[in-house]
Write a structure and sequence with these properties.
Blueprint lengths: L3 E2 L1 H7 L8 E4 L3 H6 L10 E3 L2 H6 L12 E4 L4 H10 L4 E4 L2 H6 L3 E7 L3 E8 L4 E8 L3 E5 L5 H10 L3 E6 L11 H8 L2 E4 L1 H4 L7 E2 L5 E4 L2 E7 L11 E4 L3 E5 L16 H16 L7 E4 L16 E2 H7 L8 H10 L7 H9 L7 H7 L11
Helix pairs in contact: 9-11
Length: about 375
Amino acid sequence: MISSMTTNELAARIEDPAEAPYILDVRAPDAFDRWKIEGKVPVETVNIPYWTALEDISKISVPKDRDVVVVCAHGGSSEMVAEMLELPNVVNLAGGMDAWAATLVPRTILDDGTHFVIQFDRTAKACLSYAVGARGHEMAVIDGAANMEAYLKVAADMDATLTHIFDTHLHADHISLGRDLREHTSATYHIAEGDAESAAFVYETLVDGQTFTFGEVELVVRSVATPGHTPGSTSLEVAGKFLMTGDAVFVTGVGRPDLGGETEPWARDLFHTIHDKLSPLDHDLEICPAHYTSRSESNADGTIRRRLGDLLEFDPVVSIEDEEAFVEHVVSHLGTPPAIYADIRKVNLGRVTPTEQEAKELEVGRNECALSK
């Protein structure tokens, strides 16, 4: 029986170049091109379709002096290839890319013994979400995705009741867990009306200046008017230390303003969000976004965050002070948004209900919510 590696084990291994395994991806080339295993450092990967092994296993050569992980869509074809290779250093990725897509890696960014802020890294899609709360009291989830059990486990571990769920904006690259979490826990789901006014479900409207208290932590909605990526994009300040910016700004760059068909006006909104809304805030706040571009952006502790003042001063896009120059740069670096994003937005508005398989297909691939290089 061939050995297997879990996706959580793989996520830990690809953070360290000394531990990163060799990846043999046996999916079809088009599936491989859409997304692949990526880590903090380049992961040595080869794509050889599984039917090559069926034709002649001798055509597949892998290192014998390091761990090799075989990957496919669901874990079945890769297990077959791993067994055919008959090498002690070869293991199968349990659950394949299906499991990888739903894997959330938790990393603590605040824990004072009572209050906690945990960042969840959905490595497969470079998505970030958060759990914020106090032990023995209440907890909130921000931009939840992929795996409901990961958030419920934190609530159980912290003896906290999930009472509030926030989406910083209407997501286009992945399906929000907001409504699923609400239905499972009876927590209140919050999103700005500017993003959800056509939603086919009940929600609590986020309004400027609301304060939500968890233990002694104040979760402050700084402004519903942090638009640009979407009209209702909202930033959440946590404990006077962190600013969850959704896709408005990242640790490098900004969110694309063209997913709703109002490119130039939303680009102007984004400029004013940066200079009128974010710039006056405490520059020591740490930006904690909903996405990142590469794991190379992570800090020594693995978290993705950056001091607001550094972003405002040094980021080549965020630091542009002239509105026309900013708009021209943003519009000229958009690229083409994935057509499937329009379908995901409909799902997140509750206007379309996909099957489990359809939902998986909608979420294939990394996020493309930032500007193109």
